[in-house]
Specification:
The chain has a single domain, classed as Aminopeptidase. It is built from seven helices and nine strands, in the order E-E-H-E-H-E-E-E-H-E-H-H-E-H-E-H. Strand 6, helix 3 and strand 7 form a beta-alpha-beta unit. 31% of the residues are buried. Keywords: Transferase. It comes from Heyndrickxia ginsengihumi.
Amino acid sequence: MKHEKNYHCMTLETPYGSLIIEGPITGASLAKMDFHEDLKAFRPAKKQHVALIEIADLPEGRMIIARENNIVVGYVTFLYPDPLERWSEGNMDNLLELGAIEVIPKYRGNAVGKHLLQVSMMDDAMEDYIIITTEYYWHWDLKGTGLNVWDYRKMMEKMMDAGGLKWFATDDPEICSHPANCLMVRIGKRIKQDSIEQFDRLRFQNRYMY
């Protein structure tokens, strides 16, 4: 499958000034930018910067960023699912996972995540993919936001909805291990029925077990 990446950009006005939301960007472009020290949800900021440069340069990898001048203050990534997850078992070249989304505390509450997803979906090439995100409550910043699990889930669903991702049922054990966890999916307009059926087989692997 040919992985097209068509760049889009928009400006988001916030109480702290203007942010540029843009992408997909290249690893070379990302390497020239500064990476805010508060982008540390997954690993220390410097290490995360290096990891994101690598993702941006993957053939299927997509990196959409929010920046304040030359400082990255938020991002969302899309790439093939982790080989250790069930979502990779079908070897579907048209299945991408929203791997991470993060915004520094200063800009939270200003719809940065929502706009990152909107810019992501401006690229018509995304209509050739099934996009998934697996949401686990233990990854959520409940302490930093002061939200309980259910309010955070509502916030997450509202944000993902901005990118067209909707709740889908699954029997995946990790997702089923807590009722707040969920699978959210966006099926591109050009996805064919056989790919949808293949994805359904990934969603439900134990439907005949008792």
